[in-house]
Amino acid sequence: MITSDNHCxxxxxxxxxxxxxSCGQIYLVKRLTLSGLAHEVFHFFTxxxxxxxxxxxSLVQSPGKMQKDYVDGHRARHQKPxxxxxLCATIAALIYYWTNLVLxxxxxxxxxxEASFFHQYMVILQxxxxxxxxxxxxxxxxxxxxxYAETVxxxxxxxxxxxxxxxxxxxxKLIVPDFETRYLxxxxxxxxxxxxxxxxxxxxxxxxxxxxTIFSTALCFLVAGFVQGYLIDLLS
Length: 236
Known about the structure:
Elements: E1 6-7, E2 14-15, H1 34-61, H2 65-71, H3 81-106, H4 112-120, H5 122-140, H6 148-169, H7 182-200, H8 206-235
Antiparallel strand pairs: 1-2
Helix pairs in contact: 3-4, 3-5, 3-6, 5-6, 5-8, 6-7, 7-8
């Protein structure tokens, strides 16, 4: 046990205890070994299992309730909203990109402009659009007890699952190359948002929440489609 003064190798501060009072790093830093790296990998996947996969499962099984619980303070077991969003956006971008490459190389389908866009800019686009979606939802439900920041949390979690579902729907094109996935995406996203918002905005009448959700979802789709199409043409 460390009981005397110790020197922090990270910030060069001397102190007592096990951890540096300045930067929080442990004083006793072990040499890197293969077993240590294996432990880091195990810890990472254990963390993902408790955070990422648990949150993804909750978004599927309890949409709206999961986000409501997080906003109300039940946060320990969930992946943080921003890291969850970035992980899902990255996974979705890769699936979109590789699907388009397969379609172009083996089916004479797909779109090289879209493939390049999804590979380079999709995550950035979603980061930029998330506050816009949040503003649309916040203004639509402005009489609720939730502020804009809490609405951002709702949207980040919603987008996380929606991006994964949307990217998986792209795989249908590997069987039917000319299939327009938007015809499935819109009803699925609308139904998921309705289910989510009814649970999240539980103080409103369900019929009112239903109408507001249909309106806001359609508006978000129109804005997203316009911005994405404009950027693909501009960047090409």
